[in-house]
Amino acid sequence: SHLYGFGLMDAEAMVMEAEKWTTVPRQHVCVESTDRQIKTIRPNSAVRSIYKASGCSDNPNRHVNYLEHVVVRITITHPRRGDLAIYLTSPSGTRSQLLAN
Protein backbone atom coordinates (compact mmCIF):
# COMPACT_ATOMS: atom_id res chain seq x y z
CA SER A 1 0.00 0.00 0.00
CA HIS A 2 1.40 3.39 -1.00
CA LEU A 3 -0.64 5.02 1.76
CA TYR A 4 -0.10 2.73 4.77
CA GLY A 5 3.08 0.71 4.14
CA PHE A 6 3.25 -3.05 4.46
CA GLY A 7 2.88 -3.54 8.22
CA LEU A 8 4.27 -6.49 10.14
CA MET A 9 5.68 -9.32 8.00
CA ASP A 10 6.32 -12.97 8.90
CA ALA A 11 9.78 -13.66 7.43
CA GLU A 12 9.61 -17.42 8.06
CA ALA A 13 6.27 -17.71 6.26
CA MET A 14 7.67 -15.68 3.36
CA VAL A 15 10.68 -18.04 3.03
CA MET A 16 8.40 -21.10 3.15
CA GLU A 17 6.24 -19.64 0.36
CA ALA A 18 9.34 -18.74 -1.68
CA GLU A 19 10.56 -22.35 -1.54
CA LYS A 20 7.44 -23.57 -3.37
CA TRP A 21 7.10 -20.55 -5.69
CA THR A 22 6.45 -21.25 -9.37
CA THR A 23 7.95 -18.65 -11.68
CA VAL A 24 6.21 -17.26 -14.73
CA PRO A 25 7.62 -17.68 -18.26
CA ARG A 26 10.10 -15.20 -19.75
CA GLN A 27 8.83 -11.65 -20.09
CA HIS A 28 7.51 -10.34 -23.37
CA VAL A 29 5.93 -7.03 -24.20
CA CYS A 30 2.47 -6.57 -25.67
CA VAL A 31 1.89 -3.06 -27.03
CA GLU A 32 -1.53 -1.85 -28.08
CA SER A 33 -2.70 1.56 -29.22
CA THR A 34 -6.14 3.11 -29.22
CA ASP A 35 -7.66 5.82 -31.30
CA ARG A 36 -7.46 9.22 -29.67
CA GLN A 37 -10.65 10.00 -27.82
CA ILE A 38 -11.41 13.64 -27.17
CA LYS A 39 -13.72 14.03 -24.20
CA THR A 40 -14.71 17.04 -22.14
CA ILE A 41 -14.47 16.82 -18.36
CA ARG A 42 -17.34 18.81 -16.88
CA PRO A 43 -17.03 20.29 -13.36
CA ASN A 44 -18.01 17.85 -10.58
CA SER A 45 -18.43 14.95 -12.98
CA ALA A 46 -16.54 11.85 -14.07
CA VAL A 47 -15.36 10.77 -17.49
CA ARG A 48 -15.14 7.04 -18.09
CA SER A 49 -13.16 5.55 -20.94
CA ILE A 50 -13.31 1.81 -21.54
CA TYR A 51 -10.70 -0.03 -23.60
CA LYS A 52 -10.77 -3.78 -24.07
CA ALA A 53 -7.27 -5.02 -24.83
CA SER A 54 -6.80 -8.03 -27.07
CA GLY A 55 -3.80 -9.22 -25.05
CA CYS A 56 -1.90 -9.56 -28.34
CA SER A 57 -4.11 -12.57 -29.14
CA ASP A 58 -3.39 -12.09 -32.85
CA ASN A 59 0.19 -13.26 -32.18
CA PRO A 60 0.29 -16.63 -30.34
CA ASN A 61 3.95 -16.09 -29.37
CA ARG A 62 3.02 -12.81 -27.63
CA HIS A 63 -0.34 -13.75 -26.08
CA VAL A 64 -0.68 -12.48 -22.48
CA ASN A 65 -1.16 -15.24 -19.90
CA TYR A 66 0.45 -13.47 -16.93
CA LEU A 67 0.47 -9.76 -16.21
CA GLU A 68 2.98 -8.00 -13.98
CA HIS A 69 2.39 -4.36 -14.81
CA VAL A 70 0.63 -2.01 -17.19
CA VAL A 71 1.93 1.25 -18.65
CA VAL A 72 -0.75 3.80 -19.47
CA ARG A 73 -0.04 6.92 -21.49
CA ILE A 74 -2.67 9.60 -21.26
CA THR A 75 -2.74 13.26 -22.26
CA ILE A 76 -5.09 15.56 -20.38
CA THR A 77 -5.34 19.30 -20.71
CA HIS A 78 -6.88 20.83 -17.61
CA PRO A 79 -6.30 24.14 -15.80
CA ARG A 80 -5.86 22.55 -12.34
CA ARG A 81 -4.21 19.14 -11.97
CA GLY A 82 -5.32 19.06 -8.31
CA ASP A 83 -8.93 18.78 -9.45
CA LEU A 84 -8.31 15.44 -11.18
CA ALA A 85 -8.08 11.86 -9.96
CA ILE A 86 -7.33 9.00 -12.36
CA TYR A 87 -8.09 5.32 -11.71
CA LEU A 88 -7.36 2.19 -13.73
CA THR A 89 -9.82 -0.68 -13.18
CA SER A 90 -9.10 -4.22 -14.33
CA PRO A 91 -11.76 -6.52 -15.80
CA SER A 92 -11.84 -8.39 -12.48
CA GLY A 93 -12.57 -5.14 -10.62
CA THR A 94 -9.14 -4.34 -9.17
CA ARG A 95 -8.95 -0.55 -8.98
CA SER A 96 -5.59 1.26 -8.97
CA GLN A 97 -5.22 4.99 -8.45
CA LEU A 98 -2.86 6.48 -11.05
CA LEU A 99 -3.28 10.11 -9.99
CA ALA A 100 -4.58 11.50 -6.71
CA ASN A 101 -6.19 14.94 -6.70
Automatic annotation (TrEMBL):
Keywords: Hydrolase, Protease, Serine protease
Gene3D superfamilies documented for this protein: Galactose-binding domain-like
Pfam families hit by this protein: P_proprotein
Residue ranges of domain P/Homo B in the record: 23-101
Protein name as it appears in the record: Proprotein convertase subtilisin/kexin type 5
Organism classification: Eukaryota, Metazoa, Chordata, Craniata, Vertebrata
